[in-house]
Structure formats: structure tokens, C-alpha cells
Amino acid sequence: MDPIVEVVAALLGFIGWVMVGVALPNRYWKTSTVDGNVITTSTLYENLWMSCATDSTGVHNCREFPSLFALSGYIQASRALMIASIVMGTFGLVTSLIGMQCCKAGGDNYVLKGRITAVGGVFFILQGLCTMISVSWYAFNITQDFFNPLYAGTKYEIGEGLYIGWCSGTLAICAGVCLLFACKSNSDDNKSAYPYQPSRGTIYSGAASRRDVASTYDKNAYV
């Protein structure tokens, strides 16, 4: 495997893992579209954990969701997927670092290190998929309520937390794909044929010819 590809993929995976940690506690997963009049201007915004409001004076008031079972199903699923994404990213970072050629933790068995790196790539892909499913599902419900003319509640728009999540998922998937393709190309190179070497029969025939020459020389020497 190319060490440069390993370093670039590990760097992309690390950035994606950090961005998941930034997106998860971000308060602006969705924001309100109507602020009210000039005097009582307020902005509503929510994430997976709480609902907040800010007024024209800059005072923020946040209220955590009281019960897990009282939440909508997509919020519960998004929570679980985001937490699973962080766990997968952690495993991906550890396995990819151990499998890198510049790391001595995995020994000098490069075949084993390549397989470990491939496992890290799989973890990165799973991290990206979990993140993408979580934020896309959350965004789908936002747009569904926004464009529903019969929806009487507060209509929200997509917040910055979702964009961070999409970027994180993209980076994680790119890192995993790079690791997998690099390991596959390395295994294909190892399967290439060895250079041609003469067979044992040829060696024996050469040895026999040398014996014939030696015997002839000995006979001529006594004449």
C-alpha cells in the first residue's frame, strides 16, 4: 500500500470523526424561519437534545427534551446513529493507525497490516453511512413539515449542524474507500508472477555437461 494514501485516508477519517463530534452537540440542527415583529423578535432552534429560543436582547433559553420515549421516532434514531458513528470512527482510527506501514505496533507482517487497514476502512465507511442516514433523515422531516400546507406548527429550516454532518459523512466515506482500494491494489500486486527462473532439470543438465567435459579432459590428459 502507498504510505501517502494511508496518511491522506487517515487524515480524512480523523477530520470526519472530529466533525461528527462537532455536529452532535451543535444546537442549530434546525432553525425557525419566522422571527416575529420588530419588538418581540425571537429565533427558535433545536437539535437532538434540546429546544432553544433567543430574543432580540440576545438572551438564550434552552429546554432539554423531557423524555426519550416522548420524542419522535426519527429523533431517537438520529441519536442512536450519531452515537454509533462516533464509535465506528473511533474503531476506524485505531485500526487504520495500527495497520499503517510507518507504525510498528502491528509488527513487520505487511499482509496482516494491510488487512487491519482494510478493516479500518470498513469502519470509516460505516461511520459515514451512519452520519449520512442520521442527518438526511432529520433533514427530510424538516422539509416535509416545511412544505406541508396543513402543518400548523412552527416551520423550520435546515441548520448548520446538518451541513457539518453531511461533510463529516462524505469525508469518512472517502477515507474508507481510499483504504479499501489501496489494500486491494496491493493484494493484486502481490499476486503477480515471479520472474522466470531456470528449472532444476536445466541445472542438472548443466552439471552433467560439466562432468562430461571433465571426464573428456581427464582422458586426454593421459594420452
What does the model show?
By secondary structure, the protein is of the alpha+beta class. The chain has helices at residues 3-23, 73-99, 110-146, 160-190, 200-221, and strands spanning 30-32, 42-46, 50-55, 60-64, 156-158. It has a five-stranded antiparallel sheet. α1 runs parallel beside α3 (110-146), α1 runs antiparallel to α4 (160-190) and α3 (110-146) packs antiparallel against α4 (160-190). This is Claudin. Keywords: Cell junction, Cell membrane, Membrane, Tight junction, Transmembrane, Transmembrane helix. It is a multi-pass membrane protein.
- Inertia-based shape: elongated
Low-confidence segments = 191-205, 219-223
**Helix/strand class:** alpha+beta
Helix residue percentage: 55-70%
List the strand order in the largest sheet.
Answer: 4-3-2-1-5
Largest pleated sheet: 5 strands, antiparallel
Mean pLDDT: 79
Estimated share of beta-strand residues: 5-15%
CATH topology of the domain at 3-26 and 68-190: Butyryl-CoA Dehydrogenase, subunit A, domain 3
Would you list the SSEs in sequence order as H and E?
HEEEEHHEHH
CATH architecture of the domain at 3-26 and 68-190: Up-down Bundle
Task: Output the CATH class name of the domain at 3-26 and 68-190.
Answer: Mainly Alpha
- What Rg is obtained from the alpha carbons, in whole angstroms? 32 Å
